[in-house]
Amino acid sequence: MTAPAYTGLSSPEAIADPYPYYAWLREHAPVHHDTAADVWVVSRHEDVMAVVRDHARFSSHQGLPVDNDPFNPNPAPPWAAVVLRRVQSVRVLLTTDPPDHTMLRRRVAKAFTPRRIAAWEPRIRQVADELVARMAERGGPADLVRDLASPLPTTIIAELMGIPAERHRDFKRWSDQLIDGLFTGGSRAGMMRGLAAISWFFLRTVRRRRREPGDDLISLLTAEGDEPLTAPELVTFCVLLLVAGNETTTNLVSSAMAALFARPEQWARIVADPSLAEAAVEEALRFDGPAQGLLRIATTDVVMAGVTIPAGARVLVLLGSANRDPARWESPDEFLLDRPNTRDHLAFGTGIHYCIGHLLARMEARAALEALARRLPDLSPAGPPTRMTSPVLRGLRTQPVRLSPP
Which residue stretches belong to region Disordered (predicted)? Predict the structure, then answer.
């Protein structure tokens, strides 16, 4: 079947299934100027790798849109635009280049060492098992996102940060407001209200931890050292951690189960051998990853695939397209538990900006799938899902499920 021609990534058709459009881009316009969004779209695996690893020519600085968001045409209110510009002036791990990025990464990496994250595995499995047990005990209508994929990472990231349980719902509400502002048609004003609320909460928390440190992640980040972070840097990192820590795992679990619902024979394999959940998580990251694209800024004219990307241009690298590139993957549009070298995917990026929380997201998603396979082997969709309306963030907002055969 011929892939449909690219007409933009924000259409309902592309958001529902962007992969045929990615295929058209890779074949016909691997470096494409989307004039409507004013971004240069890069889609082939080789080129995506080159852009993401070349921070000298493709800068992460100012990578988050303020006035002209290519993913959400709704304008930000004037007051919100002013606040966003001030936020942009703070050094943030996601939107900095070396040497600032090197310092920030070194400062926060100690909170995400393999040993520290591994110590959380028993608690992550306990929370996943408890959530799935509640679904099984209720026995009635359930929703995969509401009942498992969303509360699991919310609970874990809040506990990592030492946030009391009674504030977990606030955490989730603020996170949803921030993410919804990035959706096509989402409320930018609502996003700013969420940002203001969570920033004020974290500012007070940072001040308390500096006076009375504990053993939580925020205390670790606020500890004195050779390269102390400023209060605004600490707050913005906490906000980023909250949002990314919630959304990545929620979307990963929902997308993995969507792929498995469409392939019941593969779900049956995981039910028979829950250890295959690890392979399912890695293949889901490649097949339908939570982050579909990243923004960069060209610092100079760059010729790529015979096309000149001008200096100052915004460049959208399609991680989701790179992960389905037949030049890199055999049978890329198939979901295969036995795929070799699956961890070579770009779902968490590559190079200096490789996702610092990847171990946590993987562990949470694996625990969720294993808990479902053990406790709810007959799990199946009970209705159509509701998908996130974003061309760069991919996952489900709702997925009704039945717990036993119809």
Answer: 378-406
